[in-house]
């Protein structure tokens, strides 16, 4: 099929929302055996946002989704995909309620759980619906309230994670226009599923017949192997997606990595032999926001003029599962609100 006949998913709107409550490293140091210096040297994080009582993932998703729709100049979409690992309920999925609260009642809506790789997986899923002709416009929201699954005594995870939401609108277009999402590289390695895990709450624990261990409702992470895997998988995935796109690494103006940890991002830059300045960062201000990470850093960088229309952007992510994913695009003109 000739290239100009192929439908592509084109980014045409972006919006974000962070809960108002800021938790600084100093705030954490008052309740735990940690310090601002300990957190900053290991993660590059200064502060993060945490939901207030009465908030949930859907609240964040609706706010970010409304801003993305406004940015796109249209409130019409055919599909809503919410990437999240912290849905409001185990059942039903959060997306139908989010769609309803956005005035999109009746449109297809579902959740996608690929943890920190969730947003890129959701972009690929949305792009597939557009390519297949089953959707003209899709609202993709990455939203997580990961602080709700953290152990209040675990200084490592409390320092790293924050809550937030980011969303984009994709429309049907052509592969050669600005904003068209390029090829995708997606992968997973379930042999390492236990490196990042919330052990309880699912069918395995519920079907075990064993009494619930209260510690198992909290997230656990094995830091060192996660660090190594994150660097390797994002670097390899970036190289694969560049190859598929026919780009060289030096063609890329900006790299938007999942914002897990500033040291991981520095290591990816070293692996790819790319100057650190080409990597956009906001992890210092928001921490690891899981599925919200990529849209948040893209929107922040665009608002700051660090990503400009015409810039060639590579997006890469890594998370629990293990899962990873990358894509490329030429940054379009967007209404940033």
TrEMBL record:
<keyword id="KW-0963">Cytoplasm</keyword>
<dbReference type="GO" id="GO:0005737">
    <property type="term" value="C:cytoplasm"/>
</dbReference>
<keyword id="KW-0808">Transferase</keyword>
<dbReference type="InterPro" id="IPR004655">
    <property type="entry name" value="FabH"/>
</dbReference>
<keyword id="KW-0275">Fatty acid biosynthesis</keyword>
<feature type="domain" description="Beta-ketoacyl-[acyl-carrier-protein] synthase III N-terminal">
    <location>
        <begin position="110"/>
        <end position="190"/>
    </location>
</feature>
<dbReference type="GO" id="GO:0044550">
    <property type="term" value="P:secondary metabolite biosynthetic process"/>
</dbReference>
<comment type="subunit">
    <text>Homodimer.</text>
</comment>
<comment type="pathway">
    <text>Lipid metabolism; fatty acid biosynthesis.</text>
</comment>
<protein>
    <recommendedName>
        <fullName>Beta-ketoacyl-[acyl-carrier-protein] synthase III</fullName>
        <ecNumber>2.3.1.180</ecNumber>
    </recommendedName>
</protein>
<dbReference type="Pfam" id="PF08545">
    <property type="entry name" value="ACP_syn_III"/>
</dbReference>
<keyword id="KW-0443">Lipid metabolism</keyword>
<keyword id="KW-0276">Fatty acid metabolism</keyword>
<dbReference type="GO" id="GO:0006633">
    <property type="term" value="P:fatty acid biosynthetic process"/>
</dbReference>
<dbReference type="GO" id="GO:0004315">
    <property type="term" value="F:3-oxoacyl-[acyl-carrier-protein] synthase activity"/>
</dbReference>
<feature type="active site">
    <location>
        <position position="258"/>
    </location>
</feature>
<dbReference type="GO" id="GO:0033818">
    <property type="term" value="F:beta-ketoacyl-acyl-carrier-protein synthase III activity"/>
</dbReference>
<keyword id="KW-0511">Multifunctional enzyme</keyword>
<feature type="region of interest" description="ACP-binding">
    <location>
        <begin position="259"/>
        <end position="263"/>
    </location>
</feature>
<feature type="active site">
    <location>
        <position position="288"/>
    </location>
</feature>
<dbReference type="InterPro" id="IPR013747">
    <property type="entry name" value="ACP_syn_III_C"/>
</dbReference>
<dbReference type="InterPro" id="IPR016039">
    <property type="entry name" value="Thiolase-like"/>
</dbReference>
<comment type="function">
    <text>Catalyzes the condensation reaction of fatty acid synthesis by the addition to an acyl acceptor of two carbons from malonyl-ACP. Catalyzes the first condensation reaction which initiates fatty acid synthesis and may therefore play a role in governing the total rate of fatty acid production. Possesses both acetoacetyl-ACP synthase and acetyl transacylase activities. Its substrate specificity determines the biosynthesis of branched-chain and/or straight-chain of fatty acids.</text>
</comment>
<keyword id="KW-0444">Lipid biosynthesis</keyword>
<dbReference type="InterPro" id="IPR013751">
    <property type="entry name" value="ACP_syn_III_N"/>
</dbReference>
<feature type="domain" description="Beta-ketoacyl-[acyl-carrier-protein] synthase III C-terminal">
    <location>
        <begin position="242"/>
        <end position="331"/>
    </location>
</feature>
<dbReference type="Pfam" id="PF08541">
    <property type="entry name" value="ACP_syn_III_C"/>
</dbReference>
<comment type="similarity">
    <text>Belongs to the thiolase-like superfamily. FabH family.</text>
</comment>
<feature type="active site">
    <location>
        <position position="116"/>
    </location>
</feature>
<keyword id="KW-0012">Acyltransferase</keyword>
């Amino acid at each position: 099929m000739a290239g100009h006949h192929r439908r592509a998913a084109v980014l045409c709107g972006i919006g974000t929302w962070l809960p108002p409550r800021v938790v600084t490293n100093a705030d954490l140091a008052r309740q735990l055996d940690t310090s601002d210096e300990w957190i900053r040297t290991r993660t590059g994080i200064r502060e993060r946002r945490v939901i207030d009582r009465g908030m949930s993932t859907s609240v964040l998703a609706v706010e970010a989704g409304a801003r993305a729709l406004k940015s796109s100049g249209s409130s019409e979409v055919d599909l809503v995909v919410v990437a999240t690992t912290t849905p409001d309920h185990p059942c039903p999925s959060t997306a139908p309620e989010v769609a309803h609260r956005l005035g999109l009642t009746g449109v297809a809506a579902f959740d996608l759980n690929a943890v920190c790789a969730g947003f890129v997986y959701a972009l690929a899923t949305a792009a597939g619906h557009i390519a297949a002709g089953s959707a003209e416009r899709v609202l993709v929201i990455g939203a997580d309230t990961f602080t709700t699954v953290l152990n209040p005594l675990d200084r490592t995870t409390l320092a790293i994670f924050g809550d937030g939401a980011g969303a984009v609108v994709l429309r049907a277009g052509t592969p050669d226009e600005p904003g068209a999402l390029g090829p995708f590289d997606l992968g997973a390695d379930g042999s390492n599923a236990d490196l990042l895990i919330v052990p309880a709450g699912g069918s395995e624990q519920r079907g075990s017949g064993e009494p619930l261990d209260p510690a198992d409702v909290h997230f656990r992470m094995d830091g060192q192997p996660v660090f190594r895997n994150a660097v390797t998988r994002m670097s390899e995935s970036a190289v694969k997606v560049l190859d598929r796109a026919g780009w060289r690494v030096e063609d890329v103006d900006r790299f938007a990595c999942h914002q897990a940890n500033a040291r991981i991002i520095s290591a990816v830059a070293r692996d790819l032999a790319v100057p650190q300045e080409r990597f956009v960062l906001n992890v210092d201000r928001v921490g690891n926001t899981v599925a919200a990470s990529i849209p948040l850093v893209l929107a922040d960088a665009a608002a700051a003029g660090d990503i400009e229309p015409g810039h060639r952007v590579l997006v890469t992510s890594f998370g629990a599962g293990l899962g990873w994913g990358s894509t490329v695009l030429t940054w379009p003109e967007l209404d940033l609100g």
